[in-house]
Write a structure and sequence with these properties.
Blueprint lengths: L25 H15 L8 H19 L7 H22 L1 H19 L3 H21 L3 H23 L6 H23 L22 E2 L3 H5 L5 E7 L10 E7 L1 E2 L4 E2 L2 H8 L16 E7 L13 E2 L5 E3 L5 E3 L7 E7 L11 H6 L9 H13 L3 H14 L3 E2 L10 H9 L1 E2 L1 H14 L4 E8 L2 E3 L4 E5 L3 E9 L3 E5 L2 H4 L1 H5 L27 H22 L3 H12 L4 H23 L10 H16 L9 H11 L4 H16 L5 H27 L1 H5 L8
Helix pairs in contact: 1-2, 1-5, 1-6, 2-4, 3-4, 4-5, 5-6, 6-7, 7-19, 11-14, 13-14, 20-23, 21-22, 22-23
């Protein structure tokens, strides 16, 4: 008992509208409690603390209403909460982003409507908004596991609507009815998925935030080593031919050519080209020479960066071929994004370099890293040939005591000098940064490339997975007549990193598993569990390729395989036939269309006996029941009276007595079949030897 009385507590607790049509059934109130938790759980990562608190209060209050402990709150209180919630969201929109703020606003409206609903029409509103929230959760995460979870949530949400019309039922009946409705809708949904035109999604509204995961357009020494703590998937690749060896898997994402002594950035001129990318679809021509193709499925990252092997070229919709040999997405990658790439590994990248590009890739900040500058000048004098000059730098990393580590020591304002001549320990960015500075100091244009190196190949499904912890940095130096040439100083210090992958150098427990105790990558060390992990990953990959990646090209290919020609007439006939099949299935399920049922063995034997007796001369009609049949057979041959009467009695018991146990029913069926078999033998003999069989009674079985 509360020590005070709530001003809005109402002992009557009756709805405003007392008509039976307006009352909310108690079973619906029960299901609404489950629906509230089910709908909001997939969106937990979108909830602000304020939104979560309001939702929790509304849920607890609704439990009190269901148990009859409190009354519904007055509308004035709900209105005040709504205005306060909206004002709070307006104040923190800049921190959340517009999209997240709107999602929280919808969730708050859902929670407040949930607490103040009074009639059936309010329940329908709640369920309708629930469908919108499920759709938002699906747009945010379209993996196969999340899709299955949201399918269950949809069934539960529909169950609340079903409970409004079922009356007094068992608690699980609305769920079973909802599941049946959902299963019936799947064939039609699948048909519409196949035949409807494929348009670009209208709901892909990019948030105002920057990259959510993965590489950034600026990098400092240590930034990429932080990515090695992430076990998130970056992208998947399917090769059309042989899979390249691990040491050839340099996935280009970003080119860094501006250095201020502390961090590397993209050149402002390149950023301007990116901003103008929609107006310049392709900034370089298709390369020539030998090539191989593959498809990439990039995971959501909140950025525009795409991945390819050198020299990559793509004609996929929404992809721009940038002038610095990389690929760029016109829209932020907020969902899985698939695109096709053709790589030309022997193509020369930029055989001629403009004066502006040469100046950009030779520029070094003044008055820092004097020892690295001096070393570059020495190399220029000792090795006039550019290729030999860069080879000398690579050999220095291989021959002198340099160390590859995820935890390098601190460096001062002269970052390259401290690394190159003092501590000599670092990660890939340290080595790449040092080599670019030395190359520029020696008079050669150079730049840093960020991306990923290596991949985990799934032989059973035929695709490769690239994770965030495989992030890498390497160097490109422009050499006359050869264009941009790739150098990876990391390969000289830790060659196994490039040849065998990240795990060959670092322990997973000290890197990408350190902050991910529940990551499935922990199963790598157990062969059977690792095989199960790969199989589950394959299912998610097939889902990405054939469902999420079902674009207009795949739709046309499917129609050509099914129909021979993807004409409008044939597609229309295909769709019409599919709809007819779906409607027939629904009609059969609802009982409007019935198929003839096959009789069981006892029924078939009994009707066979009746047919034999009729051929023998017994005057039987189609409407005769078992007792009438027994009476007519007894009159035809009195010697069969006891047997046919016993059969009729047992047959009627089986058909019309629900009190029989399963054991009794089984024994009686067996005895009936034996009786019928004996009568059939007798009828057959009666037709062949009528004088003899007419004098013999039928011997009864036990």
């Amino acid at each position: 008992m509360l020590p005070f009385s709530l001003p809005w507590k109402n002992k009557d607790r009756t709805p405003v509208d007392k008509s039976p049509q307006a009352l909310i059934p108690r079973i619906t109130s029960f299901w609404l409690l489950i629906i509230n938790v089910a709908v909001l759980t997939p969106l937990y990562d979108e909830l602000t603390p304020w939104t979560l608190a309001i939702c929790a209060i509304c849920f607890v209050w609704r439990i009190g209403i269901f148990l009859g402990k409190v009354a519904k709150p007055p509308r004035l209180l709900v209105s005040i909460l709504a205005m306060a919630s909206a004002a709070t969201l307006l104040l923190i929109t800049g921190q959340l982003g517009t999209l997240s703020a709107l999602i929280n606003l919808l969730i708050l409206g859902y929670a407040l409507k949930y607490i103040e609903m009074r009639q059936r029409r309010d329940v329908k509103t709640i369920i309708l908004v629930g469908y919108f929230l499920v759709a938002l959760a699906f747009i945010d995460n379209q993996s196969i596991l999340n899709t299955l979870l949201l399918a269950v949530v949809t069934i539960i949400n529909t169950g609340g609507l079903v409970s409004l019309y079922q009356g007094k039922t068992r608690p699980l009946d609305p769920l079973l009815g909802s599941a049946s409705i959902t299963l019936l809708s799947l064939p039609l949904a699948g048909l519409l998925f196949l035949v409807l035109p494929r348009f670009s999604p209208l709901w892909m509204v990019p948030d105002t935030d920057s990259a959510t995961t993965g590489l950034s357009d600026s990098v400092r020494p240590g930034d990429i080593s932080n990515l090695t703590r992430s076990a998130e998937l970056a992208f998947r690749v399917t090769f059309q031919g042989p899979v390249p060896s691990n040491d050839r898997l340099y996935w280009r994402a970003l080119v860094m050519d501006s250095y201020d002594g502390k961090e590397w950035r993209q050149n402002p001129r390149v950023k301007a080209l990116q901003n103008n990318a929609p107006n310049i679809p392709n900034q370089r021509p298709r390369p020539m020479g030998g090539s191989y193709g593959y498809q990439v499925i990039a995971e959501p990252s909140g950025t525009h960066w795409l991945f390819s092997l050198d020299l990559g070229y793509s004609e996929s919709r929404g992809v721009v071929n940038m002038s610095n040999s990389r690929l760029f997405a016109l829209r932020r990658i907020e969902q899985q994004f698939g695109y096709d790439v053709t790589s030309y590994p022997n193509a020369i990248r930029d055989p001629m370099l403009s004066a502006l590009e040469r100046h950009t890739n030779l520029t070094l900040p003044p008055d820092i890293n004097p020892r690295a500058r001096a070393y570059g000048q020495q190399l220029r004098e000792a090795f006039p040939d550019p290729a030999q000059r860069m080879q000398a730098v690579m050999e220095r990393f291989a021959q002198e005591p340099f160390y590859y580590t995820l935890k390098p020591p601190r460096i001062g304002s002269n970052q390259v000098d401290d690394f190159l001549f003092d501590n000599r320990s670092g990660f890939c960015v340290h080595y790449a940064s040092a080599m670019v500075v030395v190359a520029r100091a020696s008079g050669l244009p150079a730049r840093m490339v960020n991306g990923y190196q290596g991949g985990e190949y799934n032989a059973a499904a035929g695709y490769m997975s690239v994770y965030q912890y495989m992030a890498h940095a390497w160097v490109e130096v422009w050499i006359p007549s050869e264009g941009w040439v790739t150098f990876d100083p990391t390969a000289m210090v830790a060659p196994e990193r490039v040849l065998d992958g990240f795990d060959a150098v670092f322990k997973p427990e000290d890197s990408y598993l350190l902050d991910n105790p529940l990551s499935s990558l922990r199963l790598k060390n157990w062969p059977l569990l690792n095989e199960l992990r790969m199989q589950l990953a394959s299912l998610d990959y097939y889902w990405s390729v054939w469902v999420l990646g079902f674009n207009a090209n795949k739709q046309r290919q499917l129609f050509r395989e099914l129909l021979g020609q993807a004409s409008t007439e044939r597609i229309g006939l295909f769709m019409l036939g599919g709809i007819i099949c779906v409607l027939m299935l629904i009609a059969w399920y609802t009982g409007l269309l019935s198929l003839p049922k096959r009789r069981d063995k006892l029924q078939r034997k009994y009707h066979k006996l009746l047919h034999a007796l009729k051929r023998l001369g017994v005057n039987l009609n189609i409407s005769d029941g078992p007792r009438t049949v027994a009476h007519k057979v007894s009159r035809f041959n009195p010697n069969w009276q006891e047997s046919i009467t016993s059969l009729a009695n047992e047959f009627e018991q089986l058909e019309f007595n629900p009190a029989l146990t399963d054991r009794q029913r089984k024994e009686m069926r067996k005895h009936c079949l034996q009786q019928i078999e004996r009568l059939l033998i007798l009828v057959t003999l009666q037709r062949t030897t009528p004088t003899l069989m007419g004098e013999l009674p039928l011997k009864q079985g036990k």
